[in-house]
Amino acid sequence: MDIDSVIEKIEEYEYVSFDVFDTLLLRPYVKPTDLFRHMEINENTPGFADARISAERRARTKDRPEVTLSDIYDAMDTKFSHMMEKELEYEAQVLQPNPEMKRVFDLTLSKGKVVILLSDMYLPSAFIADVLSKRGFSGYRKLYVSSDNGKSKCFGDLFRQALGDLNVLPSELLHIGDDERSDVRTPSAMGIGTARYEKVMERYLREHKRERRFYLRKKDLGRSVIVGIDALNWISRNEWDYWHSLGYRYGGPVLTAFASFINDNADDKEGTILFIARDGCGPRRVYNMLYGDVENRYVYAARIFNILLGLNGRDYPGYEEQIVDHFSEKGLLHVGEDRKRFFSENRDMFEKLMADKLNAYGEYLSGNVNSGTVYVVDATTQKFSSQRLVEAALGRNAVGLYYTMLSRTDVCDCRSFVKYRRVPLAYTRVDVPEFLMSSPEPPVSGMDNGSPVFSENVSEEERFRLEIMDAVMEGEDEYAGDVKNVFGALIPRTEPDTAEDWIRSMTANRTDEDLEHLSGLFWASDPAHDEYHGIIFSPRDAVPFILKKVRDRYTSLRRRIE
């Protein structure tokens, strides 16, 4: 029965009862028992979830089908006894008001109806009442919970108790709930009016086929939470534009997962996290919203800096020309047509100029770091250019924290959220996360006194990206805010393959709306931002992309030999 039909039916009754769990209150998981998986992982108690589920099954007997939370923990190994208070803590944190039924509940009270609540639940009634109050449910006459006296909706005796207290006939009461037996068949057989409210998760999974496939692939906690939060957002019926929705639904989960990885690895609280522009913009915002335990800065370490500071030019074809052009623009040089030859003939002079630039850049960085460990956070790396640049400028080692690495290195201390991938196939899966992490800034074309200089003339591809990034970031921040509101300090971890599969579920199964919007989004595939390909890497992009990589590798090797 849809919400409008439920509201119409309420008009026929003076007394209305509501189920509580999965009706008025929702958990942010696909299955309620995923709460126990969440507890097991966060509290580091292996075996707890299965033990908790089995204990409840054993505690419920034919003679005593309704139990209390204490009954359940009495049926468990004593090593889990401390988890009973933890369960109450987690439930109190994660239970959320159902916006659809909150509207119905408030409307029912506003019409002067007498409202009661009935729940077959092992949690204490005082605890449930407190959660309801904190979630905005007040004004009802009484809460009936099966754990109080063993009476249940399922067998009808909880309804009989409520009818007796109200002193009304069954036909005068309307009951609203989600369970087919307890909330529909049993009360209907007693003559009570019923309105079945279908579970939010059942409706969501029926209407969201690609999200359903994503969850069914593994059914782990991370997938349950991503789908659970998405369902809570869906039931709220937010009216967003496409880019805000993309940021919330896909950028939010990726950034939240990466922020947790950063928090787990940046364990020196006296250190400094340097989030590298531009891909460090999103990770920094979300890290600070969810954790923010380590002091951090947003700094610039563009790949072109490695060229201009003389650290890693040979890997980039045409590096001599870029260096000559940069210093010529400052009015320091008078160059002929052959810039490569000019560079070769004046190498000592350029090395001195670049060394001065490196010192200035080091001063820029030094004002942003503490005496502890320096962490360098970036989205994707192959040559570790930003980390090596920071280390050279500061004169000390740093720890690299990356979303993904496209090559291995024994030179840098580095860790990767998504494990190492071999190129070139990896490029088909890194562009979307990089886009979602990025900032509304144009590319960096150079540096001046240690600070970045932004490109003044940007391409059409960059201009389009800049136009949509504010909306994307708003969605990402809203998602992180929802995660903080729902989980507080109990944020669950998301496995790398879960975050990756969530993105892949969208890119591999694009809707017409996705195709319409993403077809106009292109991503730079070179440091100079001269070459672009579609954000969703397609087979037709592969040949020119691979040929370019082979050409660049050949040019780099030739330069090394020279």
- What is the arithmetic mean of pLDDT? 88
> What is the CATH domain class of one domain?
Alpha Beta
Cross-sheet strand order for the largest sheet = 5-4-1-6-7
Nearest-angstrom radius of gyration?
Answer: 30 Å
Number of strands: 16
Structural class by helix and strand composition: alpha/beta
Helix content, binned percent:
40-55%
Oligomer state equals: single chain
CATH topology of one domain: Rossmann fold
- CATH superfamily annotation of one domain: HAD superfamily/HAD-like
| Strand proportion | 5-15%
Distance between termini? 77 Å
Enumerate how many helices there are, as a single number.
25
Task: Summarize the biggest pleated sheet.
Answer: 5 strands, parallel
Structure overview:
Helix content is 51%, strand content 14%. Mean pLDDT is 88; it is low at 424-428. The protein has a domain at 3-204: HAD superfamily/HAD-like (Rossmann fold), CATH 3.40.50.1000. It has 562 residues and is an alpha/beta fold. The longest helix is centred in the last third of the chain and has 28 residues, at 460-487. Strands 5-4-1-6-7 form a 5-stranded parallel β-sheet, sandwiched between helices.
